Structure formats: structure tokens, C-alpha cells
Amino acid sequence: MKKYFGIVFVIVLSIFIFTGCEKVGEGKYKEGTYLGTYTDNYGGAKNTAMAIVYVDSNGLIKSVYLDTTYVKDGVNTTKKTLGNDYGMKTRSEAGKEWYEQVNLIESKVVENQDISFIKLDDNGKTDAIAGVTMKIDALYNALDNALKDAKK
């Protein structure tokens, strides 16, 4: 029995020596809710992209909310609020509505715990997120502004 205990002890000790004692699940952000905005002139109208990022007590991004102001038929609203009425699905290369593409961005930011994986081309688009074919540079900048405030 002592022989088995000794072997198990050596294996456990080896794991700690070779992998270190890093705290599991510790992120690089301060706990809180952070707002980032970015105003652009897209399609001849000024719109404000906004990002709300929630970081938990472990410094991990737990949720991201993205939206953009929009005027439709003279009414101030947001693209997410419009949902299917925004009308992007038929024009989208991916066959997805605006809010569906934004939901993919939100999920990927939480999954990656950052936006550094997103590389924008000269048109403000990215191929880093499958199913996202629209221009996202304003959303990216809003996220960047929120995450700058959240950094430790």
C-alpha cells in the first residue's frame, strides 16, 4: 500500500512541477460591466455602435451585448431591436440577418476572452468568425473601447 501511495504522490508532484500552480479560470479583466461606443458614418448616416461587456469576479468575460443605433422610417431605433425587419438576410452572403451575425460575434468574444483574434480587412470585414460577412469595424471599435476600460 505504501508503494502505491508513493507512486501516486510522485505522479501528483510531477504534475505540479511540470505544469505549475497557475490559478485556473483567472482572466485578464477587472470585474464589472463596461460600455464602449464608436460613432461612424455608414451609408450617409451617423450611427453609434455600442458594446456592453460583463466581466465576472474571476476576470473572465461572461457576456457581450452589441448593437447599433439606426433610423428606420424616421424612427430612432437599433438594428437589434428591428430584428428581422432590418432586412439584411436577403442581401447577406451568409443568408443571416444582422442580429444573427452579431450574436455570432458576441459568442466568439466570450469564447476567446478577447478580440485579438479578429483581423479586419480594408473594408472593415473579417473572416475570423464563420457566418459573419458584414462590415464590423464600428462594433470592433466599440468592443475595443469597452475592453480597454476592463483591462487590469
Would you mind describing this structure in some detail?
The protein has 152 residues and is an alpha+beta fold. It has one domain (32-150). It is built from four helices and four strands. It has helices at 2-19, 79-82, 98-112, 137-150; strands at residues 32-42, 45-55, 61-72, 75-78. The chain has a four-stranded antiparallel sheet with strand order 1-2-3-4.
Short précis:
The protein is of the alpha+beta class and 152 residues long. 34% of the residues lie in helices and 25% in strands. The chain has one domain.
Descriptive tags:
single chain, alpha+beta, four-stranded antiparallel β-sheet, 4 helices, 4 strands
Task: Compile the SSE list and pairings.
Layout: H1 2-19, E1 32-42, E2 45-55, E3 61-72, E4 75-78, H2 79-82, H3 98-112, H4 137-150
Antiparallel strand pairs: 1-2, 2-3, 3-4
Largest sheet: 4 strands, antiparallel
Indicate the overall shape: globular
| Helical content band | 25-40%
Q: How many DSSP-defined strands?
A: 4
What is the straight-line distance between the termini? 48 Å
- How many helices does DSSP assign? 4
